[in-house]
Amino acid sequence: MKIEIGTQAPGFTLYNSDKKEVSLKEFQGKNVLILFFPLAFSSVCTAELCQMRDDIARYNQSNAEVLAISVDSPHTLAKFKEDQHLNFTLLSDFNKEVSAQYGSLYETFALGMKGVSKRSAFVIDKDGVIRYAEVLENAGEQPNYEAIDACLSSLN
To answer: Which helix (H) or strand (E) holds 47?
Structure first.
C-alpha cells in the first residue's frame, strides 16, 4: 500500500525497546517523524539514527516526536539503543504489519532476507495527517532531511 500525502496516517501499536506498547494515537497533538529503517547495527542505519540523536533538539523545537521502526526484535532494539545512546523511541515491527501498511517493506532484501523495512520517512501532523512521505528503494540512501525539516517548520 502506498501512503498518500494529505491522508490520515494508519494507526498502529508496537512494542518499544523497553517492551512497552506504544500507539501512534498517543502522539495526537504533536507532530511525529516516523523513520522506518532496515536493520539495527548495520552501517547506514547506525549513521541515520545517530544523526537523529545528534539533531534531536531540532526535532524537539518542532514539537516533533521521533519514532524509529524496524523489523528487529525489542531485545535487539534495546541493545542498539543502549550501544548508540539513542534518545528517541525505537519500535519493533517484528510481524512486519506496520511496515507493510506504510508501503515500506522489501519483499527480498540483501542476502535473500525477506520482509525487511525499507528506509522511509513520514511526517504526521498534530491531527494525524500525513504531510511528508519518502520511501527509498535503495537502502544505502538516507532520507532528505532538509525536506523533512522544511515540512516540520511549515507545521509550526
So the answer is: helix 43-54
Q: What are phi and psi of 78, to 5 degrees?
A: -65, -45
pLDDT for res 81: 97
| Residue in 45, 52, 68, 91 annotated catalytic | 45
pLDDT, tens digit (0-9, with 9 covering 90-100), for 94-139: 999 999 999 999 876 665 767 889 999 999 999 999 999 999 988 8
3-state secondary structure of 99: helix
In a domain, 16, yes or no: no
CA 148-137-109 angle, to 5 degrees, is 130
Tell me the backbone φ, ψ of residue 25, rounded to 5 degrees.
-65, -20
Active site residue 45: yes
Question: Is 17 inside a domain boundary?
Answer: no
CATH number, domain with residue 69? 3.40.30.10
Joined grid coordinates for residue 118? 525499507
Q: pTM of this prediction?
A: 0.94
Tally of domains in the chain: 1
Residue 152 burial (C-beta neighbours within 10 Å; 0-12, 13-18, 19+): buried
Kindly state whether residue 93 falls inside one of the protein's structural domains.
yes
